Amino acid sequence: MQVLLGARSVPDAGAVGNFTQRARRSRAGIEQGRRPLACPRTSALWLSRPWARCRIAPGPFRQSAPIAVSSTTYNVVNGSISVPANSMNALEAYQLLITPAAGAATGQQRYEAENATVVNAGRFSSGSASDGGYVGQIDGSANMRDQSFVDFLVNVPQARAYTMNIRYANATGANATHGLASNGGGWSTVTYPPTGAWGSFGASVNVSVNLNAGWNMIRLAKGAPNFAGGVGFAELDAITLS
Ligand SMILES: [Ca+2]
Fold this sequence. Notes:
single chain, mainly beta, Jelly Rolls, 2 domains, 5-stranded antiparallel sheet, 4-stranded antiparallel sheet, binds calcium ion
């Protein structure tokens, strides 16, 4: 992730003394490009006297864009980053702008299992599932009539290896596996460690998948033609490509 740390100066909210004298000095300060000395913050006079608008009116003392304090690329570890912000000024506001280091993503990245082509399995609802739905009963592997698999039709901007995050549930108490194939290519194995309960989602695994630019078909299978069959059972919630 690319992180831009910026700061924007804010007017001094401190000393409030003789209103007339200080407000005049403030107006002069604005015209000279300096920070205003004081404006009463809650007084009705503050709202009614035009020079008191020094706090909100555009002027030389007010910055049009944040000052960049730092711009750094961080690796995401377990879904989070840690950004140090040293020597912060209490009179300034700070903001973080976080963007993917490779640039903003284009196109769809997440695909719901319940919206994919589901063969010999069922669609169900769950409050913990992405978009409220998932695919379960992906159980068949014995013969072509009952082989269970889910086909995701995805579109990616360029040909490369993508990280595919798979949200799943596996309440068998042991590792389960599916076969993974894209565009009719060879099979690889996806291993799903056990999770708490069927229909309860939050766990995910990452695998790598090679995709072509444009449309691709990704199959996750308990059973499918030319596939020996997976171990145990798993439910599918969604995949995310990055
Ligand atoms: Ca889902």
